[in-house]
Amino acid sequence: MNQVVNPLPHVLMLTAIVVGVSVTGVALAVMIRIYRKYGTLEEDEILHKIENE
Amino acid sequence: MQVLPSIFPLLAVLVSLLAAVPIMLCGRQPNLREAWTIFAAICKVLIVVSMLPVVLEGGSYIFTLVEVVPGVPIALKVDAMGMVFALIASVLWLFTSIYSIGYMRALEEHSQTRYFASFAVAIASTIGVAFSANLLTLYLFYEMLSLSTYPLVTHEQTPEARASGRKYLTYILGTSIALVLPAMLITYTLAGTLDFTAGGILAGKASGSTLALLLVLFLFGFAKAGIMPFHGWLPAAMVAPTPVSSFLHGVAVVKAGVFSVLRIIFDIFGSDLLVQADIGWIVTTVASVTLLTASLVALTQDSLKRRLAYSTIGQLSYMVLGAGMISAVGMAGGIMHIAMHAFGKITLFFCAGAIYVASHKKYISQMDGLGRQMPITFFAFLIGSLSIIGLPPLGGFISKWNLVIGAVEGGQLVLLVVLLVSSLLNAAYFLPIVYRAFFAEPLEPAVQGIKEAPVLCLLPICATALCSFLLFFFHDVFLRLAQLAVAP
Amino acid sequence: MKSNLHMYVMAVPLLTAFMVNICGLYNRKVIAPMVLGALGLSSLLAVIVLNRTLTLGSLSYTVGAWTPPGGIELLVDPLSALMLLLISAVAFIATFAALPCVKRDLEDRQHIFFTLYLILIAGLMGLVLTADAFNLYVMLEITSITTYGLIALGRGRAPLSSFNYIIMGSVAASFYLLGVGYLYLLTGTLNMAHIATYLPALQGSAALATALAFILVGLWIKMAFFPLHGWLPRAYSDAPDGAGVLIAPLMTKVTVYLMIRLMFTFQSPEFQLVNMDIHNLIVWVAAIGIICASSLALAQRNLKLMLTYIIIAEVGYMVGGAWLANEQGMIGTILHIVNDALMTLCLFLAAVAIAYRTGSLQFESLKGLYRRMPWTMAAFTIGAFAMIGVPPTAGFFSKWYLLLGGIESGQWIYVIALIFSSLVNAILFFRIIEFAYFQKAEDEPAHPQGLRMEAPMMILVPLLLSATALILIGLGTGPLVENLISLTIPSGFFG
């Protein structure tokens, strides 16, 4: 019995990874939108473009 | 002593608050709209007067709406002091409503519906202040009064009105949030209650320095009382239409401030505590300084309404001064001055408005010889000024006489000097106006014959002037109420 | 007491979310009845749950019948039942206004919007219900991810604002997760009540202090507690109107609730969460935050941006109040969660109504609005008075309790900050009232009949409803505190 590993931390890690992947997915999607809108991902350039709008 | 639970205090507040609804709905039919105003005003007077007999017997009415904070409900109580204020406010609202109709129509003012609706809310709040049973309720109605008068002060919607409205709110809302609110909370923390109780609730609850701090916070916090240096809003508010200036800034708003201060002194601190903790001098000093300064400034004002405004600031301090006196007669005098000054000052403001309606003149320097053209108005103006100065046979004499006796009885001879000097100053800034109107040569060719304001303006002027005169002889009601308020 | 009713409050919007996604694809007309029906049902259930918790005490439900500490427990006590009702009711009211806005702004993506919208609501309810620290992390991320998506749907620079929020939100979540990891290492459990039983033995442990600090900082970023607020103004003001009316009133308030929940669960007579110095420090930071956020609000020239800075100041009110370490402050905080949610709802609805008609929320475009949209402006004025703290609106009474708490514990800086912020709010709102009341719009038609351009009923009715609620709740503060809020504070919490 002692040789069984506690499954809970694994479950937690897996869930955290899944959550992390989802957030990354959303972030990338949003980045694509930013790129489509401003044609760049350089923050300075984006802010510059917003100011000129 | 009788304490009757009754819905009448609530009705007295609600009747004009609810009247605001039909007034707004009848915006297209001015006659019907004004009928609602007059109807509500008459109902209000009747309700208030119907409670008078019990109060004169030393009884009171109470009504509890809802308990909002442990131990502090939103509650109304009709007692002697509240009755003084409610009585003059409701009677004068009736006069002012009639006058407003004449004034607003003669000048063809815009947005009259908003004007009459705001007015109805303002008077409801005023009665609410008068009938508050505790400090929280008073604060509630006090704020309601500040906010409902904002559209009245800024009625013209001009840049000037906007600036004045800003000043008005800065002073009144600013002080009530920054000074009264914390003071109220500290009082609640110390005493565990906020009920207005004869003899006060703070006795033995706080140290002398805390009491002094609280007193200062309250005294300056109720900026509607016009205690210097928080008086600046009153002259600025003169940009409002004259009925607003006359009723709100001659009676309701400013007296709501004084009334609140008196409530604090009598029913939160208790006059004994003022003597005991030796902090009464704060009240009298501040009031004396305001009183003299305001009278001096009034001398320099050329705009009639501004001169009246500074006169009001000075007169308000009489009432505060009375509350700070040691003797009961002086305190009663202070309370009575609420009533006496109200009738006198509203007459003066009504006259200023009538002059504007009839001749479009605002400045005293333009009024030379105008008395020949408007004899009734200027005669009423004379009566009003004499009452404010405090000469017999007019109402103002009674209250000032009591104040003087109070000063002598309490051995506060400095106050006696202040009172006398101030009366001289009052005469100095009022009588020249009357003199110029009747005896100076007109600057421009005079209009031939009589050209007075409309009848609806003149009637209230005559009525209030007559009241000032009659109050000299029939002041028993107010005297009795004032005595009850001071020593129940 | 075992019960599963509260699970359904959360399950209804969650399941509806997926159905909306599928059905809405084929027929857009079904979206509105489905969303409103689900949220109406949730609100109704929440009322029943609240009623039950008040009579029966807290209700517990173990998902899949796996018992804690291993299993997932959904626990509802009076406080969480109150939050549940608040979330479902605010969401229900906000949805009416969201529908016309979304229909106009996101014509062909309505079903996507409302899928995210409903999952967000379910996530918020999950946050309130869960009794498991790790589950809380998952729920936190569910609400965050849906919010990122909703905000990114907005116009203008919305994607950029959303991206900022994603970065800050992820940092916050990592902080929180690290804290929970530490707690798990120390106690070997994730059920919060279970963790609490181990804590007295760990008093003074540096690892525990680290864990708590991480968790608190994580939550503070999520609730935009000054100075961790940088992401909020842009994110909330760039969100589409339909999302703003839901996110702005609820997100920060639910996070404040989480902080209070942790305090209530972990702190006991045997275990002091943090010492008095840290209490004082937090109150100081909150006070400075209130002052700074209010001052920043003064610099804004856009109604929505101004409102977001007020939200940040209000977060300071609540965090400060919760750490005053006395009952008045805590009552004030919980009351303020309710009141602030309603005030923000009212003001955001008004902003949405104005934006719907004028298309802009720059102060210049507010000219002449009292004549053009009298009802909207009347409700806005009531909301403004509540923010300033004019009695008898609700805002006055929560401020009353917060100030009392501040005075009682002698935290004068906090008292001064609250009063300062009230004064600033007065300036802020009267500036807008001046614009709307005195200035005439340039394109104003001469004929007064052509003047009116009141918002559509779908926005106006909820707006008036929320304004009325502000006054009614204000007048009902006494019973509300006595019969509900004072019961939510665990007995003996303040010694």
Structure description:
The complex is a heterotrimer of chains A (about 55), B (about 500) and C (about 500). Chain A has about 55 residues and is mainly α. Helix content of chain A is about 80%, strand content about 0%. Chain A has helices at about 5-40, 45-50. In chain A, about 10% of the residues are buried. In chain B, about 60% of the residues are buried. The longest helix of chain B is centred in the middle third of the chain and has 33 residues, at about 160-190. Chain B has a domain at about 280-490. Chain B has helices at about 10-25, 30-55, 80-105, 110-130, 135-155, 160-190, 210-220, 235, 240-270, 270-275, 280-300, 305-325, 330-360, 370-375, 375-390, 395-410, 415-440, 455-475, 475-485; strands at about 5, 60-70, 70-80. By secondary structure, chain C is mostly helical. Chain C has a two-stranded antiparallel ribbon. Chain C starts with a helix and ends in a 7-residue tail after the last helix. The mean pLDDT of chain C is about 90. At the B-C interface, β2, α5 and α6 of B face α16, α17 and α19 of C.
Query: What are the low-pLDDT stretches of chain C, counting only 5+ consecutive residues below 50?
Result: none
Oligomeric nature of the chains: heterotrimer
Helix content of chain C: over 70%
Count of extended strands of chain A: 0
- Indicate the structural class of chain C: mainly alpha
- Give the strand content of chain A: under 5%
Mean pLDDT of chain A: 86
The biggest beta sheet of chain C is recorded as:
2 strands, antiparallel
Summing up helix and strand content along with how strands pair, one would put the structural category of chain A as mainly alpha
- Helical segment count of chain C: 19
Order of helices and strands of chain A: HH
Taking the sheet with the most strands of chain A, its summary is: none
- Greatest interface and its participating residue counts: B-C, 33 and 29 residues
Q: How far apart lie the N and C ends of chain C? A: 27 Å
SS strand fraction of chain C = under 5%
Summarize model confidence as the mean pLDDT of chain C.
89
Order of helices and strands of chain C: HHEEHHHHHHHHHHHHHHHHH
What's the shape of chain C?
Answer: globular
Distance between the termini of chain A: 67 Å
